[in-house]
């Protein structure tokens, strides 16, 4: 599992480096700002501070901050093949 604090300042998906996909799953939680999560073949998903998203990282995506103030996110990436936690039995 990889945890990142991300500052998003790109105003367009092209400025963010385009849409990219990779192995695993991705969780993001917005700490500040109102970023848009862009996916291939769909409308951008706008998020506000306190909101989260979970998606397959295989799906090409980019984080964009339409506002000049940018956005700060907490992102957690889970590499493909990582063992899933087992429930604790009592």
From TrEMBL:
It comes from the Bacteria. Residues 19-76 form the Cupin type-2 domain. InterPro entries: Cupin_2 (IPR013096), RmlC-like_jellyroll (IPR014710), RmlC_Cupin_sf (IPR011051). Signal peptide: none annotated. This is Cupin type-2 domain-containing protein. It comes from Burkholderia puraquae.
């Amino acid at each position: 599992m990889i945890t990142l604090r991300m500052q998003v300042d790109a105003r367009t998906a092209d400025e963010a480096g385009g849409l990219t996909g990779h192995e695993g799953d991705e969780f993001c939680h917005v700490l500040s700002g109102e970023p848009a999560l862009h996916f291939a073949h769909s409308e951008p998903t706008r998020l506000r501070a306190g909101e989260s998203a979970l998606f397959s990282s295989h799906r090409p995506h980019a984080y964009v901050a339409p506002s000049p103030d940018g956005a700060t996110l907490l992102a957690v990436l889970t590499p493909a093949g990582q063992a899933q936690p087992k429930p604790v039995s009592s």
